[in-house]
Amino acid sequence: MQEMPPILSVSELNQVTQSIVEREIGVVYVRGEISNLATPTSGHMYFSLKDEKSQVRCAMFRNKPGAKGFIPKNGTEVVAQGLASVYSIRGDYQLIVETMELSGDGILRAKFEALKNKLEEAHFFDQSRKRPLPKWPNTIGVVTSPTGAAVRDILTVMKRRSPSITAIIYPCVVQGENAASEIARSIFVANQRKECDVLIISRGGGSLEDLWPFNEELVAQAIFDSSLPIVSGIGHEVDITIADLVADARAPTPSAAAEIVTPETSVAYEQLASLQKRLLSASKIQINTKTSQLSTLKSKIRHPRKDLEFRFQQTDDLLRQLYKNVNFQMQFRRMSFENQRSRFNNLAPKRSIEKNRSKLTDAILKLKTTVSHKYKENQTKTQHLITSVKNLGHQRTLERGYTLVIDDQGKLVKDPNELKVGQPITTLFKSGKVGSFVSSIEES
User: Fold this and answer.
1) Adjacency order of strands within the sheet including 249-251
2) How far apart are CA 174 and CA 201, in angstroms?
3) Closest alpha carbon to 392 in 327, 317, 321
């Protein structure tokens, strides 16, 4: 036997119907003509929306946003956003209206909300993907109409704040059927040319329909794909477009967009002058301190080069004196020899030769002895001078336990600042030499 369905009261039936309608249909956008408009003193509004075939009852309560930019009248075609429901007391099917716009704006508003939801789900508005704006740009690009008021406002602000910054205009139409594609193309061209550091997209104020190219998905995608940071300055402060939501920064007006991206040169100059003054002051203090320290150290250190130069000069003087003495002795002996030969020639006869042969032999022997003695004496002096020179030379320094450093060019290193880290050097010892590389340099 089939079970009998439950018996509902009228109230229960209407409540169930209301629940089903609100859940299954929910919030909708409905376009129609206002008729049977009633505005009681409560402030609520009751009317019907109709087209050529049907109508639906509507209620718009005073605590709702209500009509946008117009006063509802019978015969006005609108787009209403509201919740499909049932008035359970009478069982009337109705639309509880949240907002209402004139038909053209209403359709655009619905499209705006649909695209906004779509792009939000695709993370187009995420703050994490938005690029920082350059602090000191050299060139600013502007995507806008070259004949509009917006570009004049932007250029005026840029010239006032920072005259040295270059502006590049990427012209496009900003209203009409082809505006969205031209705006997207200009953004693409700016990215391809890589001429600027930041990009402004802008236009002056207008109706929702006038601003609609900036609500197109094509423009949103171009902004999202841009490698250049983008600032939007579209319409007035109350105008919010899809482009504003995708851009890296949003300005309420074109002039404000120029203010955001253009640094104020006078402030920068003041900061730079202050930093320069502080740097010069700190540098002077450091230089004076280091100069004083260097003078103190320099007064305490006697450089060995002075001793070496003195020894070199003394050695040269001794050598010159030695050469002078040797030459004098040689000239003197030569003159004596010439005198003896002259006297011998004068006494040439055989008698004198025979008679004086013995004397001559003795004289020659004596001369040889004297020359030998003088030679040995001078040789001893010379050896003594050579020994003195050697004692003053670097080999003697090595024998006393010191070492000498020679760089890779074979030059004696006198100052550590003549070397570089990584440079090969040779250290001379008494019994040999050692090759090495400079790992660090420290000043005493």
Assistant:
1) 166-171, 139-144, 198-203, 230-234, 249-251
2) 10
3) 317
**Which sequence spans correspond to the domains of the chain?**
10-109, 122-263, 304-392, 404-437
Distance CA 310, CA 321 (A): 17
pTM recorded for the entire structure: 0.45
Question: Is CATH 1.10.8.60 what the domain over 122-263 is classified as, yes or no?
Answer: no
Structure tokens at 78: 């609108």
- Residue type present at position 48: S
Angle at 110 between CA 202 and CA 106, to 5 degrees: 85
CB 262 within 8 A of CB 158: yes
The per-residue b/e assignment along 166-197, b for 16 or more CB within 10 angstroms, e otherwise, is: ebeebebbbbeeebbbbbbbbbeebbeeeebb
Q: For domain 10-109, say whether CATH 1.20.1630.10 is its number.
A: no
User: What are the tokens at 56?
Assistant: 């639906």
pLDDT in tens, 211-255: 889 988 999 999 999 999 999 989 887 778 889 999 999 998 998
Distance CA 186, CA 166 (A): 18
- What single DSSP character describes residue 165? S
